[in-house]
Design brief:
single chain, mainly alpha
């Protein structure tokens, strides 16, 4: 029978023999013992990484102006496509501007920076990089314009003021730098800005101007630590009366009673009087401070007072200092027990408590 006359093939059907899948014959492993040298997956990956060749793109050499223009056109199109898709990706903008700068086309680089600032002008880093580009290529007026706009839009970013003043001072324009400082001080910055202004004036031996700035500083930030800086500034220039007046102003402002830096103020004032050989003034300051500073914040003050009396006082003064310290350092419970003994002298429980407290204080003093 011919294949064409077979009834199954005529109908287009396949036989079982035609649909059988012949699998390869499995090989039997005769030796199942472990190999003497084991190869791990980590080793295979490491060897593959070591044998992998580093395919670097070939360096493109541009030989004529037409090819250079074509290259620049392609790069600009790539950058523009990226920033069109991710407009707020500032890193791409910065790379784009840097690439234009490397090509020597500063006008295009400047245009890119301006477009970027329209997207995100609150980022101070962008202003810094923009101004630094102008300064690198000695476009001073352009850099001034950038700094002026930056400090006008972001007046609370101190770094912008510092960079602006530094550039102007390097150029030798002291008057312009002073005007920028004054613009900055109108915003009442933190103390570091004021101190930078003072150092600026002292670099040019403008002591009177520095003193006036200190006066404005203690008005803007009336803290004891800044009064101390002001007084030390005067004492360094042997202006004893001015320094003493500064300390007295700080005390007259009632900073000593409420401020946590009151102890520091009195210690500095007493140290100043000791430096001036005015031991009686220093003693009066210490005693005034012990009466006005809360005992919870006067630990260092008592220590300084004891050291002062040991160095400058006699035996009676030393004993008086020890008594004052003990009285001041009593706890509120001790004072309450003494008050109860005064009110009810026949209350034996209060007497025993007071005796116990006295014994505890005696043992502490002996130690």
């Amino acid at each position: 029978m011919s294949p064409a006359s077979h009834p199954l093939l005529t109908l287009g059907l396949l036989t079982r023999r035609d649909t059988e899948v012949k699998l390869p014959r499995s090989t039997r492993v005769k030796n199942k013992t472990a190999a003497p040298i084991q190869i791990t997956a980590e080793q295979i990956l490491r060897e593959a990484r070591q044998r992998q060749e580093n395919h670097r793109p070939p360096k493109q050499k541009i030989t004529d102006s037409d090819e250079l223009a074509d290259y620049r056109l392609r790069k600009r199109k790539e950058f523009e496509d990226v920033i069109r898709r991710a407009r707020r990706n500032t890193g791409t903008w910065v790379k784009y501007a840097s690439w234009e700068e490397s090509q020597g086309d500063l006008a295009r680089a400047r245009s890119i920076w301006e477009r970027l600032l329209d997207v995100d002008y609150r980022n101070p880093t962008l202003w810094l990089k923009y101004a630094e580009m102008e300064m690198r290529h000695r476009f001073i007026n352009h850099a001034r314009n950038v700094w002026d706009r930056a400090v006008a839009l972001l007046p609370r970013v101190d770094q912008l003021w510092y960079k602006y003043i530094h550039m102007v001072e390097i150029l030798g324009d002291v008057a312009a730098a002073r005007q920028i400082f004054e613009r900055w001080m109108d915003w009442k910055p933190d103390t570091q800005g004021w101190l930078s202004y003072i150092k600026f004036e002292l670099r040019y031996d403008e002591v009177d101007r520095a003193r006036a700035i200190y006066e404005r500083l203690v008005v803007c930030h009336p803290r004891p630590s800044y009064f101390i800086k002001y007084a030390k500034f005067e004492a360094k220039r042997r202006e004893i009366a001015r320094a003493r007046a500064v300390y007295e102003r700080a005390i007259d402002l009632n900073l000593s009673e409420d401020d946590v830096e009151a102890e520091q103020l009195f210690v500095a004032f007493a140290g100043f009087e000791m430096w001036c050989k005015e031991t009686e003034r220093a003693r009066c300051i210490y005693r005034y401070a012990l009466d006005h500073v809360p005992k919870g914040r006067a630990k260092d003050l008592y220590h300084e007072y004891d050291a002062f009396e040991k160095q400058y006082g006699d035996t009676a003064a030393m004993e008086d200092a020890i008594i004052v310290r003990k009285r001041k350092l009593k706890s509120d419970d001790d004072e309450e027990e003494e008050e109860q003994v005064r009110r009810k002298p026949l209350n034996y429980d209060s007497l025993l408590e007071a005796a116990y407290i006295w014994k505890k204080q005696k043992l502490a003093a002996d130690i």
